[in-house]
Structure formats: structure tokens, C-alpha cells
Write a sequence for this structure.
């Protein structure tokens, strides 16, 4: 099921996940194989030396192992700046999961059902676990946090512990006398996280303040009501709120504790007429919204000198804008105006969040007349950074430059850039003659080549994949998912379900890849409907497998396909992992269908605005 397993004394791993070949593997694969290895080594302390008392606290081992792997990698390869990529790969990624109404609490002490335990062993255990630990380290300070963790490991070595034991050790060393259990229970015993809304106000004397109010940030279908009594804390959190402003000359930010629904904080004279930025460097596990005046100041700053915000802060601003828009807490025009500066952006993290937002729009609008304008807008924003990174890898290229190149070239081709697709096709023709393709663009080139090629081209690559190993085989088989020949796609999906041809631990990726594109979506939905019982048999007992295999449902925008998804759920045993995943996916699809109805015209109006058209 997993990439690797931390058996004490014998770490085991899927070969394709951890073997690295300098001749055929990308630097991205070098990073991922290193991260996996460090994660499993970290389990020697977190999970093996000290084991959680019960599966409801599985995040204790996975969260710590995930944090340790990034700290270790940052120490080994500081030029890779993995603590910055962590923000988009882990922190903001898990917020996108945790904001869904179908999320669950990080800690579930009462779990006693095997399916609930399996369901709890998801990315929240890893990603939210590490995110709240990172927040706690920021609250206590690195030295104090490390001392508390060392005491925890020493006290409970060769035995079991729960999170209350960890909180007790950290409370003992807190120099501020903080009740860590009281604070952290609000983050671990209830699902989700808050959004803090920051508004400028004035008191009767004319002094300027900001009013900061928290509320539960959740994406849900309109028919779903939130029962605040289901949470032991009524969906309120102990929030370590921090902020900075445009005239701040200091990196230090003070923590203002929010133990209630709102707090009022005075503004100094130098912060009254400039932008405010909440949660700088994304230290806290929450989103931030502002009054319209402050959003306009942030947008103006981005367009005139975006480096006034750090790379991480720019990513956070973009992520918050798209998420707040989806939740109906920020108007569409303001959210999309945040992206206007991107033709001058050359860093990975902001572009990662921007493309995540743009891909959501693509998945909603690919059959809409609006889509052509969206394609043009996005490809124009990408033009400068694509020209900057180019297609050719240089020996001096850093990992970060390769990450940017991989991201923006894929984005340009995804959004139909004629130049991008032409270049990829030419590279594929060269590959057919020489069997050589630069590994950093191999997946993109092979995917475009397969989507443009015929059955003979597909069969040739399939044959080559049988003799390939590890990362190279995975790349080829992902590319094979991009055929536009209907019967070839149907045959390939059938092969994915045939365990004598491919192992489910890898084939679920190839199966899911078919339906991630607008071209493959309809074919994938038809195949799923016709072969549902076989899919459940092969993938339906392992949550990550079935969810990945069903990636195509992210492109559903109609009531007709929504009802098909509901009918699949009704045909699925309620005790299976597939059923539990379908329950969550159905809620997500309802949200997406409603979003398209509510906001399609608003996206159109932005794309037709003078500001957007000036980018074309």
C-alpha cells in the first residue's frame, strides 16, 4: 500500500519509489526518494522507539516522521530550500483537504472499527500532523520545542504514549507557561481550521485598530448544515495570530493569542496607511481574509513590487484568495486580480498555488464558452517564465529551477499553448529516433507524444515500458494514459485492473491519470460505470488506491454525472473503503457543480475586464 515501511531493523520499500539512477531519473525523483528514506529512518524514533497507544493517534508517528524528514533534508541539501517547498507540497495541500466538510479530526481516541482506523490513516495524519507540529515549534521556539520532544522520547522510550503525554512534556519546558494541551486540543480533536478576518476600525478617540474575528472555514454543499455541537470546541480554536505590514522593518512578529471569537489590536501610525498581512510565512494553520481596501493594497503591492512579500507569503496570498473565493467569502474579481502580477513571477511556490487555482477553474469550465478566454489568459501569464526556464536542462540548474520548469511547461501544455505542444511533439519525434529524452521533461514529452500519436506509437511505448525499471517505467505508463484513441484507453484501463499485468500499488496511478484530462474524462466515467465491481475488487479496499483511481470525478460539473456517482455509491458495500471515499467525493462534486452555476459568469466578467485583457 505504501511507498515504504519502517519495520524496526528492516526498512522495506517499493523499488520504484526509492531507487535513483542519475542517467534516467530526474532530480525531482532524487528529492522524493531521499524524502521517503528520511521519513522511514525518522520512524526509528517516532513510531518504533516510542509508539502511540492506539491508532487514533497515528498522526503522532506520521506527523513527527514527516517533519523530521524535511528538517533532515534541509540540513543535507540547504540549496534545495525544502522548507519553502514544504509550504505548498504539504502545508497548503493539506489545508485544501481539511477545509472539506467530509474531513475528520486529527486525533480520534475512540476508534475501534478497522475501516475507521484505515480511513484515519490518510494524508491528514501525515500532512496536518506535521503542520500543527510546525506551528507549535513556532509558538515555543525551536530550542524549547526540541528540548520538550527529547524529554518525551526519553521518558517513553520502548513504550507507548498518547498526545497528552507529548503535550505534558512540552508544557513543562514552555518558558511562557503555556498550557499546551489546552491549546493543541483545539487543533487535534476537531476537524478543519479557522479563517481569520481582519478589518480596520477606529475607536471613539479616532485611534486605529484591527478587529480580528475567527470562524470555521469549510467548503460544503448548500444543503449541508454545520452542527457546531458536534465539535467539543464548537469549531473555535486557540489561535496564535501574527501580522506584519508594509512599513515593518523587522522580521520579528509578536503572537497575539485568540482564545475567543475576536480580538481588537491597536495599529501604530506607520501601519495605518499600508497593507497588512496576517500569518506571515504561514506560521499558523489558518487562512486570512481582509476588508476590500486591504486586498486592494496587497494587489497593488504585488503588481508594483511583488518581492516586498516573501516567496512563501506570495504563495499564501494566492492560496487564500482562491480558497476564499470558492467559499463565497471573497468576490471573484478580487480573487482573480491577485493573479495579475504573475507575468513577473519567477518562483516555484507562488506559481504552484496559482496553477492549482487555475486548474480548478479549468476543471469547472473546460466545456464552457469561457474556457477559451481562460486558456489565453493563463498562457499569456506563463509566457515570461516559460521563456526564462526554457526546455533544456543546464548542468548548473538547481533543483528549484527544475521544479519551476517542470511545473510551468506542464501548465503551458495543459492550457493548450501551441508553442509548448509543438516543442513537446518535436521532442517526442526525436525520442522515437534515438530513444533518448531529457528525464526532467520525459513525462510531459511522452504524454504529448502519446496524445498526438496512433495505436502503433502507443504499442511501441507499452513494449518499452515492460523492459524499463523504477521511475522510467512509471513515467512511461503514466504517459500511456494520455491516448486519445477510445478503444486503446478502454484496453489500458482493463489492463490496470488485471493484477497479472500490473500491480495495483502502481496501476491505480495510471488508471486515475486517464480521467484527469478533459479528453479522457468521459471515457473514464463510462468505463467506471461499466466496470465498477471489478474496480472495487482491485482498488476498493485501500483508500489511497480507490481515491486516486477515481480522480476523474474532479471534472464532474453536471447533475447527470453527479447522479451517476451517487448510483455507484449505492451499489457499493458500506463496509468498504470505496464506499467511504465515495461519500466524501460526492460531497466534493456537489460543491463543484454548485460553484460552476454560481460563478461561471463572474469568471467571464473578470476575463473580459480591462485589467485581464491588458495581459493578452
Amino acid at each position: 500500500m505504501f511507498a515504504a515501511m519502517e519495520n524496526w531493523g528492516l526498512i522495506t520499500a517499493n523499488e520504484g519509489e526509492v531507487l535513483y539512477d542519475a542517467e534516467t531519473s530526474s532530480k525531482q525523483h532524487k528529492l522524493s526518494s531521499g524524502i521517503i528514506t528520511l521519513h522511514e529512518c525518522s520512524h526509528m524514533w517516532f513510531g518504533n522507539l516510542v509508539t502511540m497507544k492506539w491508532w487514533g493517534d497515528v498522526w503522532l508517528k506520521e506527523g513527527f516522521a514527516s517533519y523530521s524528514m524535511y528538517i533532515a533534508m534541509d540540513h543535507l541539501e540547504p540549496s534545495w530550500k525544502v522548507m519553502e517547498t514544504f509550504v505548498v507540497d504539504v502545508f497548503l495541500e493539506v489545508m485544501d483537504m481539511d477545509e472539506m466538510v467530509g474531513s475528520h479530526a486529527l486525533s480520534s481516541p475512540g476508534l475501534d472499527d478497522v475501516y475507521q482506523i484505515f480511513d484515519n490513516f490518510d494524508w491528514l495524519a501525515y500532512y496536518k500532523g506535521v503542520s500543527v507540529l510546525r506551528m507549535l515549534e513556532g509558538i515555543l521556539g525551536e530550542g524549547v520545542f526540541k528540548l520538550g520532544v527529547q524529554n518525551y522520547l526519553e521518558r517513553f522510550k520502548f513504550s507507548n504514549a498518547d498526545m497528552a503525554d507529548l503535550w505534558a512534556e512540552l508544557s513543562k519546558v514552555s518558558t511562557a507557561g503555556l498550557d499546551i494541551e489546552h491549546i493543541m486540543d483545539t487543533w487535534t480533536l476537531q476537524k478543519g481550521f479557522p479563517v481569520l478576518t481582519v478589518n480596520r476600525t477606529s475607536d471613539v478617540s479616532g485611534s486605529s485598530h484591527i478587529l480580528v474575528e475567527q470562524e470555521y472555514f469549510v467548503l460544503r454543499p448548500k444543503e449541508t448544515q454545520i452542527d457546531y455541537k458536534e465539535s467539543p470546541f464548537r469549531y473555535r480554536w486557540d489561535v496564535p495570530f501574527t501580522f506584519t505590514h508594509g512599513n515593518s522593518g523587522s522580521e520579528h512578529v509578536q503572537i497575539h493569542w485568540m482564545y475567543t471569537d475576536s480580538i481588537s489590536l491597536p495599529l501604530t501610525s506607520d501601519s495605518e496607511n499600508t497593507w497588512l498581512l496576517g500569518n506571515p510565512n504561514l506560521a499558523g494553520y489558518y487562512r486570512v481574509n481582509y476588508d476590500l481596501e486591504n486586498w486592494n493594497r496587497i494587489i497593488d503591492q504585488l503588481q508594483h513590487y511583488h518581492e516586498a512579500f516573501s516567496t512563501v507569503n506570495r504563495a499564501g496570498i494566492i492560496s487564500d484568495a482562491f480558497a476564499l473565493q470558492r467559499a463565497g467569502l471573497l468576490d471573484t474579481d478580487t480573487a482573480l486580480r491577485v493573479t495579475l502580477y504573475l507575468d513577473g513571477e519567477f518562483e516555484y511556490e507562488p506559481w504552484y498555488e496559482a496553477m492549482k487555482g487555475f486548474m480548478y477553474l479549468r476543471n469547472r469550465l473546460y466545456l464552457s464558452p469561457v474556457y477559451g478566454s481562460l486558456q489565453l489568459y493563463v498562457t499569456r501569464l506563463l509566457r515570461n517564465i516559460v521563456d526564462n526556464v526554457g526546455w533544456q536542462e543546464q548542468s548548473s540548474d538547481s533543483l528549484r529551477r527544475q521544479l519551476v520548469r517542470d511545473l510551468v511547461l506542464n501548465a503551458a501544455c495543459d492550457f493548450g499553448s501551441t508553442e509548448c505542444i509543438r516543442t513537446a511533439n518535436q521532442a517526442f519525434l526525436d525520442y522515437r529516433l534515438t530513444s533518448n529524452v531529457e528525464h526532467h521533461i520525459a513525462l510531459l514529452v511522452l504524454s504529448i507524444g502519446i496524445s498526438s500519436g496512433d495505436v502503433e506509437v502507443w504499442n511501441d511505448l507499452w513494449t518499452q515500458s515492460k523492459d524499463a525499471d523504477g521511475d522510467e517505467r512509471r513515467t512511461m505508463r503514466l504517459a500511456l494514459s494520455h491516448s486519445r484513441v477510445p478503444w486503446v484507453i478502454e484496453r489500458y484501463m482493463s489492463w490496470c485492473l488485471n493484477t497479472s499485468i500490473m500491480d495495483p500499488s502502481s496501476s491505480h496511478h495510471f488508471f486515475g491519470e486517464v480521467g484527469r484530462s478533459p479528453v479522457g474524462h468521459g471515457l473514464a466515467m463510462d468505463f467506471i460505470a461499466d466496470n465498477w465491481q471489478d474496480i472495487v475488487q482491485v482498488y476498493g479496499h485501500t483508500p489511497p488506491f480507490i481515491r486516486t483511481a477515481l480522480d476523474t470525478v474532479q471534472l464532474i460539473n453536471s447533475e447527470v454525472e453527479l447522479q451517476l456517482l451517487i448510483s455507484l455509491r449505492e451499489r457499493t458495500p458500506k463496509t468498504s473503503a470505496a464506499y467511504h471515499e465515495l461519500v466524501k467525493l460526492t460531497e466534493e462534486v456537489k460543491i463543484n457543480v454548485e460553484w460552476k452555476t454560481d460563478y461561471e459568469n463572474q469568471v467571464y466578467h473578470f476575463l473580459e475586464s480591462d485589467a485581464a485583457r491588458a495581459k493578452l
Summary: The mean pLDDT is 93. The radius of gyration is 24 Å. Residues 321 and 377 are 18 Å apart (CA to CA). DSSP finds 27 helices and twelve strands in the chain.
